[in-house]
Amino acid sequence: MSYRLSIIFLIFLTGCSVISGNIRREIDRTITLPMVQTNPNAYKGKNVIWGGIIISSKNLADKTVIEVLQTPLDRADMVIDKELSKGRFLVDSSIYLDTFLYKAGKEITVAGIIKGITIQKIGEMDYVYPVLEPLQMRIFEPQSEIIYEPPQPWRPYQPYNPYYPYHPYSPYPYYHPYYPYYLSILSAEIATLLGCSRLLPLPDILYIRHNTHP
Asked: CB of 70 within 8 A of CB of 87?
């Protein structure tokens, strides 16, 4: 993780890609994987930067072949949006590459020359693989997806209560900074409703109310 963060920090400072500037100057970014699958001869010899997730890598007698699940790349030419793949492609390296370093699951960015296509099986299906001859490659450890959690539902504004937490949220409802004075006012209001002519403490009023309804 720290290595990847260091790369991102350097990219931010320099405004560069993970691919060298002299190689990027020769890149045609309009060429997509499906375009090459459909009309390989039209794009043979063109330089592209593609990337994705390594599916497999194997060493043959004269080359190393890396199978890649293509994904979009960000401005730094690093893998993003893994679920938006447009297919698979192969990287044919004429020099030996250690398959432990290029193992399945790692992220890869490849600047390469389009050599054409090859047809191979995926299960029982024939699949058209565009083939790149690598000019430069970068590999990264796979990164965990960021899980988006929606914000909590909006809660209506609660009026400010100067007596919180004493009243009315306190388990002792009569514990109040102005107790018992505010209860006298409350007693007057209740006494008026009950037709009483004098102010009574709150417990007495409740007693009277109880006895007025046998």
From this structure: yes
φ, ψ of residue 97 in degrees (nearest 5): -125, 135
Residues of the chain with CATH 2.40.50.140: 15-140
Helix (H) or strand (E) holding 5: helix 2-14
- Mean pLDDT, residues 102-129 taken together: 96
The DSSP result for 63-122, as a single string, is: -EEEEEEEE-B-TTS-B--GGG---EEEEEESS---TTTT-TT-EEEEEEEEEEEEEEEE
CATH code that applies to domain 15-140 = 2.40.50.140
Instruction: Count CB neighbours of 63 within 10 A.
Output: 15
Sign of CA dihedral 24, 27, 28, 32: negative
Helix axes 202-211, 181-194, angle to 10 degrees: 20
Instruction: Give pTM, 2 decimals.
Output: 0.62
Banded pLDDT at 17 (limits 50, 70, 90): confident
With b for 16 or more beta-carbon neighbours within 10 A and e for fewer, the 24-49 pattern comes to: beebeeebbbebbbeebeebeeebbb
CB of 115 closer than 8 Å to CB of 66: no
